[in-house]
User: What shape does this take?
Amino acid sequence: MRIKAFHIMIAPALIFYFIFLAYPVVNGFWLSLHRWSGVSPIMTFTGLENYVKLLFDPFFQRALKNTLIIAFAGLAIRFVGGFSLAWIAVGYRKMGNVFLSVALMPFVVSFVAIGIMWAWIYDPSFGLINSFLKFVGLGFLARPWLGEPTTALIAIIVTSSWQSIGLYALIYAVGLQRISQSIYDSIKIDGLSTLQGIRHVILPMLKPVIAVGFVLAMSASFKIFDLVYVLTERGPAFSTDVLATYLYDSAFDKWMAGYASAIGFYLFIFCLVLVVIQLKLIRE
Amino acid sequence: MFHPSEKLLKKTKQIISTAILIIVSVLVLYPFIWTFFASLKTNPELYANTWGPPLDPQWSNYEVAWTSGRMGTCFVNSVIVTAAVVGILAIISPMAAYVLASYEFRGKKMVFYGLIAGMLVAPHVAIVPLYVLLQQLGVIDTYFALILTHVAWGLPYSTFIARAGFLGIPKSIEESARVDGLSTFQIYRKIMLPLAAPAVAVALILQAIFVWNDFLFPLIFLRSSDLFTLPLGLVVFRGMYIIRYGPLSAGVIISSIPLIAFYVFLSDYVKKGISLGGALKG
Assistant: This one.
């Protein structure tokens, strides 16, 4: 094979990709089959031992459960909320567009900044939520939102939805705008109510866009790390631990590099399987 | 045409829709405004006047955040790392995108699927081997650790968006340039890249946002606080100033304001990139 100019043009990208992405991913799988501290020269091949051990590890089970709750609750909120807002926004011309720009704004701000901000919003003494509840006479509902396991997990779901709802509204709005006006007109002519029209006509046409939204939401939730690290700091008492924070803890605090790599692959496999199942369901 | 009641119904619907959009906008914007207000308050004022604007603005909070809180150092680090990553991506990613869009070669399918896989894999999967690799290269705790990894993990996404830009250019333009005797690289540099520039810009803007905001890579690859980027610096700052809300809010504002300003000016690009990227990811 003669080397041509275009080979040279694509080479730098491929070199970066192979050295710093493909090779570490493959190497991660190799590491996950070993018992290794990450620093010592001794590395023992243990086959699938790490994967089996993880299934019986109560901390892993809790992290997996939390990740799944965050993923499915987040998916429902992003889909229903994102679609409703998109539906309303495309009904307006200029104002809808401005709204979509505003709603997308938190998406460009870091999770660290958002986590710090929302830790104050949930703060028991001066936090916005408690002071609002006291203001409207519902002070008995005020509580340390991040101090109780259930509300702390809900807080993570609410904050991550707040951060990304604009993204999903935008994606669905772009999809809705691509549907021609004649379809909207025919729904009216056929005498379908708005909800019937959405259910039987619009949603089936939006399938590809909905699929994109599901894949994005799932992979974002499975990767969630920064927000948990900053907002609840995995607490109270590690009750809001997720897969990525448990992975970090195993690798860089407990120095169990092989074990941590196996968590990484579980994270990848679960996310992939759920995405494939959802895409199948959407297609049908 | 309408019955009065029908007209009323339509009007009510419209009022409710408008109200929803306004309420959601307030819910989105108010936390930022509140944090900005908090950044100009003392602790006692924050407790006494939680919701409103500061009565006696403490601009010195920003000075505290910038110097004692080391936000200034972190800001410079974030600019250096983001600029380097975007600069390298600006050179190598559109070149690869152009080749993928215009040439047929053995293994092209594999490269293509490799890029799609690269977009779907979370960096967490490879974080331990990446750490080991960077240590072997001797770049742990340097800018290079962040730059090399961000370039590699940003490549799949930016190459995909840029590729869409190249695919949108009519084939005839490239062919006539070839007839004119331009070399492959000249065709790319002089003809194709300028035409694909909007898509390339969209891809780079999105990457700049991702790199600026990333927390995972600096957390794991850096040790010395002199090199920390803003998100990591902010977490350290919070550790030291946990109950001094004013300066800490100032830190949050300092780290977010470049992106918010950037977004206000370039929101159409960002929106286009996201809808384009979203469509491609499916």
The mean pLDDT of chain B is 89. Chain B touches chain A through 90 residues (CB under 8 Å).
